[in-house]
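S., here's the first fold you wanted:
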Amino acid sequence: MNRDGKPTVTQEQREGASAPDSVGFWSNPVPLWQRLLERLQGLYSDLSVGRDAARTVLQSTESKPRIFSIATYRAYFQALPLSLNAIRNSPEILGFVVVQWVAIVLGYLAWTHALRLIPDDVWNAIEEAVRRDRHSPEFAFSNLVLLAWTFLVVALASYPLGLCTAAMVAVNDLRASNESVTLRRCIAVADAHLGRIWAFTVVDNWITVNAILDRLPKKGGHRSKYDELLYYAWKTGTAGVVPALVNGRTYLAAGQDSLTLLRSDTSQILGLRLGFSAACWVVGVLAYIGGLFLVPHVESSFPDKARHIFHFYLLMAIPVAVAASVVTIILRPAYVLAIAHIYTNRIDVKAEVERDIECLKRLTQSTVSPRLVAFVSAVALLGFVILFSDQLGLSRWIAAVSRLDLH
């Protein structure tokens, strides 16, 4: 315990904490894409242990949350005014959440572009196949192409989302360490271990996107209670992972830290997660209902009736943008900052913050983050594909892939 009564990190943990990702990155002979895949595989393997342990905690805890009890969500709604106060004291947070909102909206629009590339005859064939059998196995190749495009968009959007989430955590860590809070310092602390944070954000966002799509109303659709249990086990089991990664933990150590928070503050962690999820659910339902009223009125003016799916998701960009603004700017900061506060109350991070700041001071001003280079290059390539998709013949290529499905 330190003089403030916080449990300190052991010497073994400090030695196990890694140096900032930027150090020695360029000299690594392993290709960047291979390192990313290895990192994703290691991440999911390490944190799946935490998810399973969290599921056990959720099933065995004596203080099981009651869904229709206000007390279940009290921890989250009490965090809302504290979040607004933190934003007032550290206006940098507002900039971070706005960047996240822009990333979500642009990512969604980039995803809908893949639907626009599908030719009319393919849409007609899809409609006919669905009319014959809603669970038709046709268009497997087309689905794989769309799946790959979706993952690419999620991976790219996860860079600014992960960076800004880590920067919000850095605001809390700097204050807990009695360090001055500036935009540059927040970005520096967040960027120090952004490689692992980016990889975790990709996996976490992919799980979230799949859960959202799985919950959308659809014929023959089903999402079991076990699916929801696994989802919330992941979310609660990894609640403290980002604060731990910001402070240089490995995935396994971050998962252990997160489980420590869940076991020591079970009711508070569950209250924060369930309250945040409930608020997001209400916003999402309202956005979906709004979209159902908006789409028919606007789509009737479109001459091309075959592209109903594309038109639907394109017009849904309006309610999605509104819902995303409420979630990212108002609801999510309360959750992120509350978890970060619980983490620093349990674990002293002063030494880690000082280490990152000192390490980054030694780097030359001309040092360019390899992750930033990779991200900007990938975004530029994606933008080129979107702007010149017709000239590149992507519609013809998708049509050819679809014909492979038909035959």
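And the second, which I think is the more interesting of the pair:
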Amino acid sequence: MAAIVPNSNRLTCSHGWIHSERATNAFRSSNIIPQPEKRKPSDIRVNLSNPESLYLKGLAHYQKEDYPAAETALAAVIQLKWNLPAAHLLLGNIDASNRKFSAALDHYAAVLELDPYEPTTFFNIALTHADLNNVQESQAYLRKALSVSPGYAPAYFELAKLLCSFNQTRAAIALLIKSAYNDPINPDALIKAGELYYDHAFHHHAIKCYERALKMDPWHQSAYLHLGIAQFRNGQCALATLSFAHCLNRNPKHKLARAFQKLSNTCLLKFAHPELQAKSASSRKAAQTSFPFTSQLSEGTSATA
């Protein structure tokens, strides 16, 4: 089941996929929904003249991770027959977190009846179908999210992850580069494309992705970390040391960057020998083997999915 995490582009990530969240206009928790416990009766008072205030109370409980109280308040909003899409969306998220997938899909369907062009709802439906192992349905709803909002980055990421699960790496990279073109201020798509290149040992192309990502956001510490790792694997120890230093400058407590910086410094001492330098140059040349969509990376254009 997809983890629910805060939506932040500045979180330190491991060298892998950043988990997608079930989208909402509320700040998401990284904790699993707790089991219901005995508690005092809810202090929520239904105000028939102002259901919006009741929704705001439910939203406040949701943000405080008091999901049972949030569900009570939001359900009361629905019972008052006040058709608020956001209430259905939050209730769908809570049901999906409790693995009540059928109920979650019903709430998401109610959102689409009120707002048929809401991309986050299509995205959440796709995640729910993924939880049910309905891969084709999940893929279809991700494409619907992109059809109504071509710049919706989470849908690109989730769809690329699905393509990778079917070994369609080239299509996944094309999709991520297209996402970067549609959202030029968000470097995460290029970082993910770089990870795919890196995983297939195309370190030279991974470096291009990370360098372009840093042009979009010079303070992205994860981009510096991934760039340094790719440079290190590509035999560029001096540049890798510099990249790790930039990462540590932004986060002095980054243990992984510190460890790789030590390895890179050790590598610099070994590469003082001419025969090792020649071997490094040969490996870098081999790493520049042609790979799909390289021209898009160098020219800064979009790739077609």
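Why I say that: The CA atoms of residues 237 and 264 lie 5 Å apart. The longest helix spans residues 255-270.

Talk tomorrow,
H.
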